[in-house]
Amino acid sequence: MSDGARAGRAELDSAQLTADVDATHELDLYRRMQLIRRFEERVYLLYLQGEIPGTLHQSQGQEAVAVGVCDVLRRTDWITSTHRPHGHALAKGVDLRAAMAELFGKATGCCGGKGGSMHLGDPSVGMLPAIAIVGGGNTVVTGLGLAFKLTRTDQVAVCFFGEGASNEGAFHEGLNFAAVQHLPIVFACENNLYGASTPFHQVSLVPDVASRAGAYGVRGEIVDGMDVLAVRESAGRAVVEARAGVGPVLLECKTYRFAGHSRGDVKGYRSREEEAEWTARDPIVRLRERLAVTLDERVLDATDAQVEAALDDAIEFARQSPLPRAEDALTGAYATVIGMESTS
Amino acid sequence: MTASAASAVGERRLTIAEALREAIAEEMRHDEKVFLIGEDIGVPGGFGGAFGVYLGLTEAFGHERIIDTPISEKALAGAAVGAALMGMRPIADLQYADFLFECMDELVNQAAKMRYMSNGQLSVPMVLRCPVGTANRGAQHGQCPESYFVHVPGLKVVCVSDAYHAKGLLKSAVRDDDPVLFFEHKLLYGSKGREQAGGMDLTAHVPEEEYFFPIGKAVVKREGTSVSVVATHMSLYRSLAVAEELAQDGIECEVIDPLTLLPFDEETIFTSVRKTGRLVIAHEDTLTGGWGAELAARVAEECLFSLEAPIRRVASHDVPLPVAPVMEQAVVPSQARIKAAIQSCCEG
Questions:
Q1: Which residues of B are catalytic?
Q2: In chain B, which residue's Cα lies nearest the Cα of A331?
Q3: Is B199 inside any structural domain?
């Protein structure tokens, strides 16, 4: 495995959830958040330079949610993601090179170039291709939970979604069905205050998504989504409950998207003061300050350098990778077609 | 003709509902990953599904594998998609095909695209049973919306009209690794068609031994040399009745049941059209953008110089369905309209 792949792959089989997170573990959480932050920043530049096609939805500011939740999952657990999936993918352990190559539209991408930024995923690490329809994952995830329940595995599924999705019918149907079936699911809401440009308070008289859990007899919990240790602790409890069959749980992580909704968003709909208030709570800065109390700064700098090297490696890998064959676009929609066993 | 009179010695005849129930039971016994999910399908003292297809299955297989959902079509379709992605083989039930529009995202954006988006790493082996058809239920409980889904790469679309093919195709659909929408006509479930179906015998020979009928294969229901008639569901039976009438006038219709609309068995149709030189298409789905339009285009592309007359389509008129029987029957393709279209086609 390359350094890049190693840096990008989260170690998923976490220890006992009740155990304290030791300094080594904390440093690893820091590294993974930093990887997502720098991934987002660097791919945005590559996009602006024309090396990455399509569009991008960046998740700077929300790293603690992706990393904190995925840290309490096993490799065999599954996640569904959204149109803003880079952080979830890296946190769940999608190979960094394969993720980068997918954004470049290369054959070596985790979806062979057919998925792209908004459909990043890798079944081998328990991530469906990201579902870029708002609320789309909220019903599909119930089937994951149902399969785990019917086959009596102790797997858990986590559905990441934004606060905007909580106004979709899918949110309500999925949560209610999961509740009455006691499915092993954690609905992890990333409440970043805005659905594209629309502030949540303008589209919901209920300020907390978690309070909607009560309508379905589900436990809802609010956690500081800018604190990876807090997210990890809450997610750990939720996952334990889900795994034990007393779920689902709705976990609302209050967070903030530092960048715009997508490329070219100048963020005219929110104040610089509000941005400054949230930037001051940067989850990576907070954890770094905490770590700096006990760790030599040089260790943290070395971690940053390791992340940078991993990204250099992944970008170079993506650049050097072959393009997909154009004709491959015409195959793979079906497992079986008439006259052919398989098109994949 | 009664069912008993139609039975040859030792020939077992079943209704479509019985054949579907038998297919489901066989597949549930064959593979424990097969389960049922839908509204009102297993509730004790309930209906066994909107049309009774599941009666008795809960007693045989228990509630764990027969999952009654809330009235939440998005959730039940999404659950089927998600479970299929995890390797299960759900048979989902939608009560009325009209409710498909409640779960278009789960079907069109998720089920149909997950395999492609994942570059073949995932499959969605699910079946969704969708009862269609006009039966005095009005605009929101009588549509035949199969053509919408013929337009969706990644889905398979099946329309069954008799017990033999219903069973063989449902078993194939359950074992297929792709999502299959399975359209059944409400008036064709029973042993005798309801009054609207003319009270005809709807049982068919279904062998005791296991068999499969392949997805993507059409059947010639009646051979003929004058004109090819491609029809599904009630329009198929009306076409067959018309064929008998027209035979007395020397017009021999070759009546074809396509059975699968996506992928479409073009070759069977092309072969027939090259023989007869004439084509009439009949379906209860509305005319504009219906699957008949797609078939007509393909025949025009591939067999134009075999055609001796313009292709004729008979479909429901382009209006929502009314309830009053006199109006409803004016909208759907009647036997008279099908007959007129075939006669017109044969005059050219």
A1: 141
A2: B116
A3: yes
ipTM over 0.90: yes
Residue with tokens 């092309």: B270
Between vectors from CA A298 to CA A293 and to CA A300, what angle results, nearest 5°?
A: 65
Alpha-helix residue ranges (DSSP H) falling in A52-199: 63-70, 86-92, 96-104, 136-150, 169-180
CATH number at A304 reads 3.40.50.970
- Specify the number of domains making up chain A: 1
**Per-residue model confidence as pLDDT tens digits over B140-190:** 999 999 999 999 999 999 999 999 999 999 999 999 999 999 999 999 998
Select from B64, B104, B117, B260 the residue whose CB has the most chain A CBs within 10 Å, as the one to mutate to test that interface: B117
Other beta carbons less than 10 A from residue B236's beta carbon: 26
With a CB cutoff of 8 Å and minimum separation 6, the contacts of B14 are: B22, B163, B167, B203, B204, B206
Domain presence at residue B201: yes
Q: What is the pLDDT of residues B53-110, one digit of tens each?
A: 998 999 899 889 999 999 999 999 999 999 999 999 999 999 999 999 999 999 999 9
Q: Is A168 on the interface with B (CB under 8 A)?
A: no
B31 in contact with A at a CB cutoff of 8 Å? Answer: no
Q: Is residue A130 in some structural domain?
A: yes
Is A141 touching B (CB cutoff 8 A)? Answer: yes
A333 at interface of B, judged by CB pairs closer than 8 A? yes
Q: Domain of B68? A: 12-205
B239 and B170 in one domain? no
Determine, for residues B122 and A138 on separate chains, whether the beta-carbon distance falls below 8 Å. no
Q: What residues of chain A lie within 8 A of the CB of B125, using their CB?
A: 335
Question: Is B107 within the bounds of a domain?
Answer: yes
| Test the B interface: residue of A111, A171, A185, A334 with most B CBs within 10 Å | A334
Residue written as token pair 């379709």: B77
pTM of the model: 0.93
CATH number at residue B18: 3.40.50.970
Q: Is A96 on the interface with B (CB under 8 A)?
A: no
Question: Edge-to-edge strand order for the sheet containing B260-262?
Answer: B66-68, B34-38, B89-93, B127-132, B180-185, B156-160, B260-262
Is there a contact between A128 and B77 if contact means CB atoms under 8 Å apart?
Answer: no
> What one-letter code names the amino acid at B9?
V
Q: Quick one: closest CA in A to B85, which residue?
A: A144
Among residues B205, B237, B263, the one where a domain terminates is B205
Per the structure, the complete domain to which residue A174 belongs is given by 3-330
